[in-house]
Design a protein that fits this description.
Helix content is 26%, strand content 25%. Helix 5 (175-188) links the parallel strand 8 and strand 9. The chain has a 9-stranded mixed β-sheet. It has helices at 2-6, 61-71, 89-97, 149-157, 175-188, 198-202, and strands at residues 9-19, 29-35, 58-60, 75-79, 101-106, 118-121, 139-144, 165-170, 192-194. It contains 6 helices and 9 strands; from the N terminus they run αβββαβαβββαβαβα. By secondary structure, the protein is of the alpha/beta class.
């Protein structure tokens, strides 16, 4: 438990080398590290299997970094679950020592740890981002589940820095019923860009 508290080991749900499917870096190769643990509980979450950290093996970060190097990746996406439930400083430092870029996917509901080359913030209604995280992200990705979410997206966009890229992404199970509404919204509000879960269309992890 000491190692996990110090960030020298982490509860790992899965690791895999693939192509990024969402947001600004769509189409780029990256090694994904999915960390267990999340207490936000979004009803539409497509990775509910990651919520309970206790059922996933605790892996030393040295082993994780070796896996990244062995596959030849030059960047890593750390996701969850909610990865910021854990101390990610040592993992980031170890990856940067090997010249590996670090990308984070987070709700922002926990304190930021680690040094990141790119942060994608996806706020959740149940546990909004901490005040000091709003200015950190490089991209804001808002999941649209129904029409009411557009108002939340606009409110969120006022909190991020002016250079933050803004994305609206349909909740996957409602893609067919939402995509036209989202595209019409983006046409009227051109600061936003549509993000799709392209990896699901490609049938890859």
């Amino acid at each position: 438990m000491e190692n996990i508290t110090d960030g020298l080991a982490l509860p790992i749900v899965e690791e895999f080398y693939t192509v990024q499917g969402e947001g600004f870096h769509t189409g780029k190769a990256a090694y994904f590290i999915r960390i267990g643990g999340c207490d936000i509980g979004c009803s539409w979450c497509d990775t509910k299997f990651s919520w309970n950290a206790a059922i996933h093996p605790v892996i030393p970060i040295d082993s994780i970094i070796k896996n990244v190097l062995d596959c030849g990746a030059d960047s890593v996406v750390v996701t969850g679950g909610e990865p910021l439930m854990w101390n990610l400083g040592p993992l980031c430092a170890g990856l940067h020592e090997k010249d590996i870029k670090t990308f984070l996917e987070t709700s922002g509901a926990y304190p930021l740890t680690g040094e990141w080359d790119w942060i994608a913030l996806s706020p959740k209604k149940g546990m909004p981002p901490l005040d000091n995280i709003w200015r950190c992200p490089n991209e804001l990705k808002v999941i649209i589940q129904d029409s009411a979410d557009f108002a939340d997206a606009e409110r969120y966009s006022k909190n991020v820095n002016k250079d933050c890229k803004l994305y609206l992404q349909p909740e996957w199970s409602r893609y067919n019923s939402l995509i036209n509404e989202i595209t019409e919204y983006v046409k009227r509000n051109t600061k936003w860009v549509v993000s799709l879960q392209s990896h699901k269309f490609m049938h890859i992890p």
